[in-house]
Design goal:
The complex is a heterodimer of chains A (283) and B (548). Chain A is mostly helical. Chain A contains 8 helices and 1 strand. Helices cover 65% and strands 1% of the residues of chain B. The chains are: A mainly alpha (283), B mainly alpha (548).
């Protein structure tokens, strides 16, 4: 009897509780670190190590099970539901910060520069974006332009979306060479993006006076681009794993959930960047 | 389709159809992927947290028994109100409903287990981790968070309010959010992908429908709360200015984001409540649920409306008048689908051959007392009136009516209703009814006077009050102590039923003709460790009954 007609239910799972212990240790360590306790950093490192070990162990197990044909079509559908709604929750998370930017630019900053607030509290405050507020929190700064590195980064990410799709076509056409080359290009473009982002941050801090503490402009700029950059890193690591598995001969035109999930995640990161480029850099 | 249940992670037999029981020992509970085990873990954890959060409420009512400071210092009192709310919302009510979802959804839709069993295990342990981080703040220098469960800045960012607790509370919210999102995703995947082929969406029991909609609310708003507290963290420790006007930010923005999460959050606690009530009432009325389709649509409407009414929590914050009016009218609309539900439950009972076992008693009192809580909600939706009620005991009375005699009562009802199915043992009906009558009387002594206190102007979250509030506070406290003590009866009944109950062997149906109302009653009692390894071909549902 073929395993394809059965829905695989694992009988026990050890990685989830290990991962939970890791994450909790890491966060408890971070909280201690923020409170100025010396135990914070070692706890964070221990927790992070456990968490990474969990990721490696759990994904290795999943890859092994998938390649041995234990997941039928229905299991694949469940995984796709899982990934789809996980990405949805990530979109909502980003929406909070985009919403914050919108509210700040269109409501709270104008309110600070009009009516009684202006007359009685801050008569000298000129409520125009970009701003670090009437208190000039963080000192003088220069806002980030759109047409230098950010524009190059936009082209990089858009190209990486194309190479990712090209790799997918290779996978479907059983052209492993195209699959691997496409993934390699995608991962390389992803990491290049992160490098340019790092250069941009360095310039902001060292030459433009623009920091996370530069009032609400600095806060929204670094929070949005920073969380996005973190997601690019995560996406590039996921794609690297998919690349590694491709070189090992994993995936077939019928069975390649991991590739699809990674590609979905990558396109999500891509779309968020377009939002950033328009609303943070251009407007 | 049939399901394979693997004995070992690596040693896998495709034709392994035989039904083996759980692993032995304590480790079983830590590494289990079985939906019934995980459901049990959720329910027992929630019950424990119900008593932890309840003890905090007892401290609050003891302090308020008389005017003046009696037992605890004001900062600790504020910690108690904050922690009571966080523990009850995130530790008791939400996990209890996830526990019911874990137990019941696969049984009700003919699925062998949840769609993503390993993630199911993780979402439970993430919950425990989150609550542990939160509870650890009780033992810290400066004490637990005491700025209210809403964690409003700038108050919550001031050293005096948080001590060392703030980052722990924030990371706890992150972990609880991860747990809820994983649980919600699992429920969505299970309902969409694991239903018996014979069951169409509009054949699903209403409990399954309400949980499907609740799961969407969860994944749509838990990340919002996570984002809000992340900004609190960076404002406190990394020099950002999101909620700082001097830097161009606005503390009111936090309130908007929080309540964009917070309002759907209260429906996350009430929609599964509606689902359980819609399951229990037809069984004891011996009639199909009245207006199945309208119940589904009303649930979906309430969920949709929950996203566009959030600022009615902040009428007094200084919004433009257009905002006040919009949020006032939008809020009032919620009464329409909610009214549909109340009328449907009433119509289900109309001319039914009713009996009044404990689950039914709790369910009927839910319909009555939840409606009362709904009416006070309607009073507060009127923006100009709300200026009078805001931050008084009136709001405390309102939301406790919608949570205690609604969500909590229905959770109790669910316990009495399904425990015999799960354990194969009958609970003691006499003690159950005693528990009900003590609860329903004392809960009104506890919360009804708080309406009067609020209308007379007593503010919430204070350890001391003016002497004119003394009498009603004492009565409320007495009600509180009786209510708290009565819940020990429930604890006794749960333990007693698990250990054998009355000794009476329950039938597969448990309740008369229950099998007409849902698939779970066609399974043996107690429910075997693995069920529906081959899906059922016929699905009896309220909907089908209704059309015959």
């Amino acid at each position: 009897m073929s395993t394809n007609s059965t829905y695989y239910i694992p009988h026990k799972a050890t990685w989830p509780v290990i991962g939970t212990v890791g994450l909790m240790t890491m966060l408890a360590g971070f909280a201690n670190y923020l409170n100025g306790s010396s135990i914070g950093q070692p706890l964070m490192i221990v927790g992070l190590s456990i968490f990474i070990a969990m990721l490696v162990g759990w994904f290795t197990l999943q890859a092994k099970e998938s390649e041995s044909g234990m997941y039928n079509h229905e299991v694949g559908i469940s995984y796709r539901h899982g990934m789809m709604w996980f990405i949805f929750s990530e979109i909502v998370f980003f929406a909070v910060f985009f919403g914050t930017l919108w509210y700040t630019r269109n409501l709270s900053v104008p309110w600070l520069g009009e009516g009684a607030t202006k007359e009685l509290l801050w008569p000298a405050f000129d409520a125009v974006w970009p701003t670090n507020g009437p208190g000039k929190v963080g000192g003088e700064f220069e806002p980030m332009g759109a047409w230098g590195l950010p524009f190059i980064n936009t082209l990089l990410l858009l190209t990486s979306g194309v190479t990712c799709t090209w790799a997918h076509h290779g996978l479907l056409a059983k052209n492993r060479d195209q699959l691997i080359k496409g993934l390699l290009a995608t991962v390389a473009l992803g990491f290049l993006f992160v490098c340019f982002q790092a250069i941009e941050y360095h310039e902001a801090y060292s030459e433009m006076g623009l920091t996370l503490g530069s009032g609400v402009y600095g806060s929204t700029f670094f929070m949005l681009t920073g969380f996005h950059g973190f997601h690019v890193c995560v996406g590039a690591i996921i794609l690297s794993v998919v690349l590694f598995r491709s070189t090992k001969g994993h995936f077939s035109p019928e069975n390649h959930f991991a590739f699809e999930a990674a590609a979905w995640y990558w396109h999500f990161v891509d779309v968020v960047w377009l939002g950033l480029f328009i609303f943070v850099y251009l407007m | 389709m049939s399901a394979v249940v693997d004995e070992h992670d690596h040693d896998h037999h495709a034709d392994d159809h035989h039904d083996h029981g759980p692993a032995k020992g304590l480790l079983r509970w830590i590494i289990t992927t079985n939906h019934k085990d995980i459901g049990t873990l959720y329910l027992l954890f929630a019950l424990t947290m119900f008593f932890v959060g309840g003890s905090m409420a007892m401290v609050i009512r003891a302090e308020l028994f008389e005017p003046g400071l009696q037992f605890v210092d004001p900062a600790f009192f504020n910690s108690m109100t904050t922690m009571h709310a966080l523990v009850m919302v995130f530790g008791a009510v939400m996990p209890a409903f996830v526990g019911l979802a874990n137990w019941q959804i696969p049984l009700m839709i003919g699925a062998t287990d949840m769609a993503l069993p390993r993630m199911n295990n993780m979402s439970f342990w993430m919950l425990v981790a989150g609550v542990l981080l939160l509870a650890s703040t009780l033992f810290m220098e400066g004490g637990a968070p005491n700025g209210g469960w809403t964690l409003y800045p700038p108050l919550v960012l001031q050293p005096i309010t948080v001590g060392k607790a703030l980052p722990f509370a924030i990371f706890s919210v992150h972990l609880l959010g991860i747990s809820s999102i994983m649980g919600a995703i699992n429920i969505i995947a299970t309902i969409f992908n694991m239903r018996a082929p014979a069951m169409k969406l509009m054949d699903m029991p209403l409990f399954v429908w309400t949980w499907l909609i609740t799961a969407f609310l969860l994944i749509a708003v838990m990340p919002v709360f996570a984002g809000a507290v992340t900004m609190l963290l960076t404002d406190k420790f990394f020099h950002t200015s999101f909620f700082n006007a001097a830097g161009g930010g606005d503390p009111v923005l936090y309130e908007h984001i929080f309540w964009f999460f917070g309002h759907p959050e209260v429906y996350i606690m009430i929609l599964p409540t509606f689902g359980v009530a819609s399951t229990i009432i037809p069984v004891f009325a011996r009639k199909p649920l009245f207006g199945y389709a309208s119940m589904v649509w009303a649930t979906a409407s309430i969920a949709f409306l929950s996203f566009i009414v959030w600022a009615h929590h902040m009428f007094t914050v200084g919004m433009p008048i257009a905002g006040e009016l919009y949020f006032m009218y939008a809020t009032m609309i919620i009464a329409v689908p909610t009214g549909v539900k109340v009328f449907n439950w009433t119509a289900t009972m109309w001319k039914g051959a009713m009996t009044f076992e404990t689950p039914m008693l709790f369910s009927i009192s839910f319909v009555v007392l939840f409606t009362l809580g709904g009416f006070t909600g309607l009073m507060m939706s009127i923006a100009p009136s709300d200026f009078q009620y805001h931050d008084t005991y009136f709001i405390v009375a309102h939301f406790h009516y919608t949570l205690v005699p609604a969500s909590i009562f229905i959770l109790m009802a669910a316990g009495y209703f399904w425990l015999p199915k799960w354990t194969g043992h009958m609970y003691n009906e006499k003690i159950g009814q005693l528990h009900f009558w003590l609860s329903v009387i004392s809960v009104n002594i506890l919360f009804f006077p708080q309406h009067f206190l609020g209308l007379a102007g007593m503010p919430r979250r204070i350890p001391d009050y003016a002497v004119q509030f003394a009498d009603w506070n004492m009565i409320s406290s007495i009600g509180g102590f009786i209510f708290g003590a009565s819940q020990l009866l429930f604890l006794y009944i749960v333990i007693d039923t698990i250990r054998g109950g009355t000794g009476e062997k329950v039938s597969d149906e448990v309740w008369e003709d229950a099998a007409k109302h849902g698939l779970e009653w066609t399974l043996p009692s107690p429910t075997p460790y693995h069920t529906w390894t081959t899906p059922p071909t016929i699905v009896p549902t309220e909907h089908v009954l209704d059309s015959h």
